[in-house]
């Protein structure tokens, strides 16, 4: 991993837009990027949290409150963003929600809510960002937070896992198509990170990491222009083994994870 000095030299004095910046990984990334003396536009629904961050780094943070599920907000941001900044060196899409399927009924509304934020909003944000990323002095980078949950099927995670799998495939395709116009695409695949989102989980989370650890790994990968940032490696390789031998996953691990009231 790069030293703080190395990361500072590569990831400083740039323009970033961090979405989902009011909590969790997004908040920590926005904080660390501001510490590195970048200009960081922070977006999320929680205006209080965003304004608190701006008070900490008044010369480096600009607040752009934005509800990704609001069409009206999207139209406002589409007009406002180019007025706030001439170019972007990086856009980091950290927004995400998780809703578990707690019975055997596939609730369409639940799936639509999860996909609206985890997938479709990301598509819209990339479309909105491309003109500004193309104006970067170096190469613009669009980074998105996926999940290791998409590497294997988990009980109750139908909506969340499917949305993250779709997002990962979308990002891989965009990496091919945006490279010729000077935009890099990076997908982050974290395991369990302690955030307000994972605090709601009622099961044991192996290899649980702090947001500080996650942010440092992501910034290190951003500085190195990695195409995929995966952590923790132990969990990733464990899931890969189970993907290679699906009968082992379904025959032992998946069944043990299932709760009695799920059937």
UniProtKB/TrEMBL annotation:
Entry keyword set: Oxidoreductase
A Pfam family this chain is assigned to: adh_short
Coiled-coil ranges from the UniProt annotation: none
Superkingdom of origin organism: Bacteria
Protein's UniProt keywords contain rRNA-binding: no
Family: Belongs to the short-chain dehydrogenases/reductases (SDR) family.
Protein name, as recorded: SDR family oxidoreductase
The species this protein was found in: Sessilibacter corallicola
Upper classification of the organism: Bacteria, Pseudomonadati, Pseudomonadota, Gammaproteobacteria, Cellvibrionales
């Amino acid at each position: 991993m790069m030293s703080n000095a190395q990361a500072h030299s590569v990831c400083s004095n740039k323009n970033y837009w961090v979405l989902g910046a009011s909590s969790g990984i997004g908040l920590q990334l926005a904080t660390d990027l501001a510490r590195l003396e970048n200009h960081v536009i922070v977006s999320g629904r929680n205006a209080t949290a965003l304004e608190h961050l701006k008070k900490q780094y008044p010369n480096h943070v600009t607040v752009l409150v934005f509800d990704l599920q609001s069409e009206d907000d999207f139209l406002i941001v589409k007009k406002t963003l180019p007025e706030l900044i001439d170019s972007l060196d990086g856009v980091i899409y950290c927004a995400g929600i998780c809703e578990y399927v707690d019975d055997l009924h596939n609730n369409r509304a639940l799936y639509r809510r999860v996909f609206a934020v985890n997938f479709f909003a990301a598509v819209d944000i990339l479309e909105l960002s491309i003109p500004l990323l193309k104006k970067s002095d170096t190469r613009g980078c669009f980074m998105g937070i996926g999940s290791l949950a998409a590497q294997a099927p988990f009980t109750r995670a139908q909506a969340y896992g499917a949305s993250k799998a779709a997002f990962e495939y979308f990002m891989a395709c965009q990496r091919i198509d945006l490279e010729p116009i000077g935009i890099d695409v990076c997908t982050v695949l974290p395991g369990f990170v302690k955030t307000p989102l994972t605090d709601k989980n009622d099961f044991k989370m192996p290899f649980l990491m702090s947001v500080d650890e996650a942010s440092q790994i992501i910034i290190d990968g951003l500085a190195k222009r990695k195409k995929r940032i995966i952590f923790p490696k132990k969990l990733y390789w464990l899931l890969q083994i189970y993907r290679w031998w699906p009968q082992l996953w379904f025959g032992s691990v998946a069944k043990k994870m299932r709760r009695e009231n799920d059937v």
